[in-house]
Amino acid sequence: VLVGLICSPPQNYPLYIRSVPTENELKFHYTVHTSLDVVDEKISAMGKALVDQRELYLGLLYPTEDYKVYGYVTNSKVKFVMVVDSSNTALRDNEIRSMFRKLHNSYTDIMCNPFYNPGDRIHSRAFDNMVNSMMMQVC
């Protein structure tokens, strides 16, 4: 399982990436960066409808043999990417959507911190704990 937050365009650099287990971390980084093109395609295909909707969940971006890649984008164009094991059939769309909402709420808490500079990498113990607890539920 991997959780990634990517900065808004045009930079598209990672603000936060966490994977469990850590031995495939480089492969997950590659997967997150390749999924950005799919996220951009979905956003441009939705166009004005995305701005009008409150639902920012993009759904399944693409499945691979081993993983399923899901996406979410905030109003400020920060992209959340989640990679889960394809063999995990217990996860349904509602659970993934709920996990993205939790991530978005925690990200909002970080943005409200006066000591956080927007665009910096996220180094928050509370955010780490939330992500770890969420990942343990999935694994």
Automatic annotation (TrEMBL):
CDD domains hit by this protein: TRAPPC2L (cd14854)
What is the predominant subcellular site recorded for this chain? cytoplasm
Question: Per the record's keyword annotation, is rRNA processing included, yes or no?
Answer: no
Entry keywords, A to Z: Cytoplasm, Endoplasmic reticulum, ER-Golgi transport, Golgi apparatus, Transport
Q: From which domain of life does this come?
A: Eukaryota
Spell out the InterPro entries in the cross-references.
Answer: Longin-like_dom_sf, Sedlin, TRAPPC2L
One GO CC annotation, please? perinuclear region of cytoplasm
GO BP annotations, alphabetical order:
endoplasmic reticulum to Golgi vesicle-mediated transport
Protein localization: Cytoplasm, Perinuclear region; Endoplasmic reticulum; Golgi apparatus
- Which spans of this chain does the record mark as coiled coil? none
In the record, the note on similarity to other proteins reads:
Belongs to the TRAPP small subunits family. Sedlin subfamily.
List the protein's name: Trafficking protein particle complex subunit 2-like protein
Q: Which organism is it from?
A: Pluvianellus socialis
Question: Where is the organism placed in the taxonomic lineage, from the top?
Answer: Eukaryota, Metazoa, Chordata, Craniata, Vertebrata
Q: Which gene encodes it?
A: Trappc2l
